[in-house]
Amino acid sequence: MLKRPLAAAAALVLLAGLSACSDDDEPTSARDTSDQSSEQPTNPDGADCVYEEDGAPAAKEVDLPADQAAYDGEVAMTISLSAGDVDVTLDAGAAPCTVNSFTSLAAQGYFDDTVCHRLTTGPFLQVLQCGDPSASGSGGPGYSFADELTGDETYGAGTLAMANAGPDTNGSQFFIVYGDSQLDPAYTVFGSVDPATLGVVQDIADEGVEGGYEDGPPASPVTIEGMTVN
Prior knowledge:
Number of domains: 1
Order of helices and strands: HEEEHEEEEEEEHEE
Radius of gyration: 16 Å
Strand content: 15-25%
Number of strands: 12
């Protein structure tokens, strides 16, 4: 069950509520990635990345991303929501391994037909959270990877960032910031939303949270229909 914090405490509980559970005691070697979709390019000169199985069952079966980042610059992508298309620019220069994981999952159809399970509408925290096929708030891809942080991150409207359950516990859950949010620089920023399409997420927020709370499932269900690298 999602916690429904008071507005003043919303930023404090983001850490606990935005990510898959993991078991850091059981890392294993990478799974075979030979069956990955051809939509994910290979790049022998890409940044070195490490992805470790985290001991938790995958919410939807996928292969581990390649251990070299597929991209090294800006990557244009469209996230097709049931509410409309959201155009984003991924920053593989700042977060190559995060972008590599995100595009790998997208290429494998991991995000397709999944529910964005959390919306926050408080004065300190305004985000739409997606990326958990179980829609429970604790699901993930069965692997985790390290943060890519500078310590100077801010979370203004249009920020695309990873959810986590503590340092270096990134999986598949991510959030779109639709209004300036007050967060510690503990969440990897890996892209931004085109201002022309941020209104799609803001319109979702205008519909409110189920039950009239400030934190919980969107009142109007939101589904990711697919993701496309442009």
